Amino acid sequence: MKVTIQPSILSGTILAAASKSSMQRACAAALLSKGTRLVQNPGHSNDDIAALDIIKRLGAEWEIAGEELTVKSNGVKPVVDEINCGESGLSIRMFTPLVALSEKEIRINGEGSLLTRPMDFFDEILPKLGVSVQSNNGKLPLKIKGPLQPTSIEIDGSLSSQFLTGLLMAFAAAPAKSSSNLPVSIKVRNLKSKPYIDLTLDVMRQFGLPLPENKNYEEFIFHKEAVEITPSEGVGTYTVEGDWSGGAFLLVAGVIAGSIRVRGLDLLSTQADKKIIDALMNANASIAMDGKGIQLHAGDMNAFEFDATDCPDLFPPLVALAAYCKGETKIKGVSRLAHKESNRGLTLQAEFGKMGVKIELLDDLMIVHGGQGVKGATVHSRHDHRIAMACAVAALKAEGETVIEEAQAVKKSYPDFYEHLESLGAKLSLNNKFTFHE
């Protein structure tokens, strides 16, 4: 699908989409919880749909009525011998340890870029927990056979915190196998994206899963007496947060091309991408926050410095923002971008280069030369949802029209993205049929 975007002036109010980080964790926690759970404001992105399919295959029953998801589960009890994680990095990293809770051999597969992402972590760690693992030379598909038996281990958290998320949930749900009163722990070196671990722990708490003792994110200790999960009484309710990852694009769109209000983003959220607010303030963007949401206006902005090591998904909207900031913006954390849907550092450099924006990559640092004008161009999403959204946002004030090829990539995380831009007044067309309001 191609999307064509003309320079636009945005106005109005928009409600942020549901967070797939929150939704997918809620699906996993509902699977592990024994009883019935209600999940309000469920997401419907491709990654969310993949998570729902996974928990169904692992034994949960669910249905969606309006804005409410009902999940009934008695723990991990697979009803098939294969699951598919789609293109979701979180799903493969979080659900694989949960699959390992079962004694049944399960094949785990994925699609698209997920097939090329490294899974050596599981080859190294899961055998230490009594799990049989077969991989395709460190890639998908995997064959997993448990049951996982928690024991004290040490892991490297530098590639992704999502591996730790899966282990924390699996350790919480695994039944005690030993008569020993000794606790088990997960020691972590070089942990990145700590805010996402805060989100994981918060979801676990709200679903009644046993919580580990957190020793400064360097060690997570599960005490023996806190292992068993008992069936919940009544129905527990969890509300999926608004998505700061997708919302970041709306906020940047507002300071580039509009006067808009974004609702539904919790300023007290543990989501890592909430830090977009810091970047906007550092850029001297026109932003105000109150009980009605976040108000944004277009205006002159200056270059800024930002460390995105713990929130690498912010790189694409930050680049769109920096393109309109006068001077050299420096963003740290490029090393976190290699194993995304695309190699985002190189992809951002190439696609924004087509729009006349110079980007330098110096080891772990990205330098964006902004404030020199953005040109309309034909760009390609590289099948990466965040690249498509970044180019769309940058196109809103570009000189001339921008065409985004393979624009449907946004369905992975934010299927309503173009419709939301259109509702704010963006002049866009899908496959050359204009759908914006005059």
- Portion of residues in beta strands equals 25-35%
Oligomer: single chain
Name given to the CATH architecture of the largest domain: Alpha-beta prism
* Structural class by sheet pairing and helices: alpha/beta
Helix content: 25-40%
Q: Spans with pLDDT under 50 lasting ≥5 residues?
A: 432-438
General form: globular
Q: Give the CA-CA distance, first to last residue.
A: 23 Å
What's the CATH first level of the largest domain? Alpha Beta
Q: Give the tally of β-strands.
A: 26
Number of domains: 2
Spatial extent as radius of gyration = 22 Å
Q: And the CATH topology of the largest domain?
A: UDP-n-acetylglucosamine1-carboxyvinyl-transferase, Chain
Task: Tell me what you see in this structure.
The protein folds into two domains: 208 residues, UDP-n-acetylglucosamine1-carboxyvinyl-transferase, Chain, CATH 3.65.10.10; 206 residues, UDP-n-acetylglucosamine1-carboxyvinyl-transferase, Chain (Alpha-beta prism), CATH 3.65.10. Helices cover 29% and strands 28% of the residues. It contains twelve helices and 26 strands. Strands 23-24-1-25-26 form a five-stranded mixed sheet. Strands 18, 19, 20, 21 and 22 form a five-stranded mixed sheet that branches. A four-stranded mixed sheet has the order 2-15-17-16. A hairpin with a 2-residue loop joins strand 21 and strand 22. The longest helix is centred in the middle third of the chain and has 14 residues.
